Amino acid sequence: MIAPKPDMTATNTALDQNLNKINSTLESKLANIKQSVEAGPKPITRHFRFLLFPESNTDYYYKMVFGRLIPWSFLFVVVLYLLSVGQKTVEAYQASIYNKEGNQCIAAWNEVYAHESKAVKKAMDKALSKVKVNDK
Predict the structure, then answer these.
(1) What is the rounded distance in angstroms from the CA atom of residue 12 to the CA atom of residue 75?
(2) Distance (Å, whole) CA 131 – CA 125
(3) What are the tens digits of pLDDT across the range 22-55?
(4) Are 124 and 113 in contact (CB under 8 A)?
(5) Is 2 helix (H, G, I), strand (E, B) or coil?
(6) DSSP character for 52?
(7) What is the rounded distance in angstroms from the CA atom of residue 68 to the CA atom of residue 77?
(8) Would you list the DSSP string of the chain?
(9) Cβ atoms of 134 and 127 closer than 8 Å
(10) Whole-structure pTM value
């Protein structure tokens, strides 16, 4: 038994019609592209802007600024202030210790000077004058 040949004319005409539609659409789009290319290049302008508030991703921006940057920057300023106050406190403490030691030396000098004879007082005055000359 031999099967009859299928009739493909309807399918062929449908394919031809669809191909014609595709070709016409393609040709019109290519014509549009050709017109835009022939119109010439458009100048490119660069814009440099500094935005305080973003145009997109605003939720992430506010979360970042108010949730992380401001508290951490405030903490950084507080730590710097505490470090400077601590440094000044240490310097003041060292100065007071130095002054106490100096005051003790002066008191000891005066005590010895008050209880010594004229010859020793003269020698002490001479030593004091030598120290004053060397300090200048």
Answers:
(1) 78
(2) 10
(3) 999 999 999 999 988 888 777 888 888 887 777 8
(4) yes
(5) coil
(6) S
(7) 14
(8) --PPPP--HHHHHHHHHHHHHHHHHHHHHHHHHHHHHHT-PPPP-------SS-SS-HHHHHHHIIIIIHHHHHHHHHHHHHHHHHHHHHHHHHHHHHHHHHHHHHHHHHHHHHTS-HHHHHHHHHHHHHHHHHH-
(9) no
(10) 0.42
